[in-house]
Structure formats: structure tokens, C-alpha cells
Design goal:
118 residues; 4-stranded antiparallel sheet; 7-stranded mixed sheet; globular; 11 strands
Length: 118
């Protein structure tokens, strides 16, 4: 089992920055991929970014150039650095982990709220 705990969300003005953290614990050696998803009010959950064991990354187009995903293996933590935030980035952000590269998400965190005011 793997446990994921997100932190770092909050209220920020448009143009500001936040860094989300996702601390993994438990059987972390089985994780092959970690992702960030977000869900805005009355919208479907949407993919934001992925990072793999080799540190390669995928960033969705809507945040490319503004968001960066990274990892600190010594701390079993994945980060989402969010710059130039926009009101449309307001959402509940979830961290996930997978045991495979392209299979279904196996583990979800509880989410951290990001609110961007205009």
C-alpha cells in the first residue's frame, strides 16, 4: 500500500505562485509514475502533469510554461511548482501514483485546494 499526502494549497492572487507537495509513504518502491490531477467546481477531473522514475515528465498544454513537476527521491516527495497562476487554475489538486507506466491510477491523495483570485 502507498499513502499520499498533499500540501501547499491556498489562496493566491492571479499572477502569483504556489508549490504543491505530495509526500508518499508505504511501499513506495512499487511506484513507477506519479501524477497531478485537478478538479474545478462542476467540472470533470483533469490531468495536469506526470513524472516518471527516470524523471521524464508530461505537462498538459494548458499549464505548459507555467507549471513544473519535479521529485525528491530522498524525501519520497513530488512537487508541482505553479507560476503565473490564473483564476481558471482554481481547483482541488490531487496527487496520484501508479504501479505501471500507463495503467490505471492505483493510489490517490485526499487533495489540496488551490484558489486563485482575480
Amino acid at each position: 500500500q502507498v499513502q499520499l499526502v498533499e500540501s501547499g494549497g491556498g489562496l493566491v492572487q492571479a499572477g502569483g505562485s504556489l508549490r504543491l507537495s505530495c509526500a508518499a509513504s508505504g511501499s513506495t518502491d512499487i511506484i513507477r509514475r506519479m501524477d497531478w490531477y485537478r478538479q474545478a467546481p462542476e467540472k470533470q477531473r483533469a490531468f495536469v502533469a506526470s513524472i516518471f522514475r527516470d524523471r521524464s515528465t508530461i505537462i498538459t498544454d494548458s499549464v505548459k510554461g507555467r507549471f513544473t513537476i519535479s521529485r525528491d527521491d530522498a524525501k519520497n516527495t513530488v512537487y508541482l511548482q505553479m507560476n503565473s497562476l490564473k483564476p481558471e487554475d482554481t481547483a482541488l489538486y490531487f496527487c496520484t501514483a501508479r504501479r505501471t507506466l500507463a495503467g490505471n491510477v492505483d493510489y490517490w491523495g485526499q487533495g489540496t485546494q488551490v484558489t486563485v483570485s482575480s
